[in-house]
Amino acid sequence: MEREAGYIKRAKDLDVYRHAYGVSLDVHKATLVFPKNNTRWLTKCGDPARRSVPIWLKDLPNRPIPGPICAFISMAMGSCSEVETWISYAFDLGYITHAQRDEWLQSYVHIYGMLVNLRKKLK
Hints:
The protein is mainly alpha-helical. It has a single domain, classed as 23S rRNA-intervening sequence (de novo design (two linked rop proteins), Up-down Bundle), CATH 1.20.1440. It contains 4 helices and 2 strands. Helix 2 packs antiparallel against helix 3 and helix 3 runs antiparallel to helix 4. The longest helix has 26 residues, at about 65-90.
């Protein structure tokens, strides 16, 4: 992680960003093939799942440490929890397999933990 005068220079250099980006890309690709007739699903689940954690983390550069940056990390943690709920919906509706659900949930639990640790380090 690059820091310059109390700022994170590049969010994409954070391990948590790279991990979250990869998982959210997988989720995004999967939601593209969900049934088109279920527009409520696409609005309620597909969009939040697609824009989840990396969206909050991309805003970290040029944020003072620790102040506002911890708020962005907290928002990313909330996004993790939201996506976990939508992953469960996707499984219960038969859109993803049991294995896919377990893999994604495990990934988001890991991302959440990484965010908790990052926030602790920055406080």
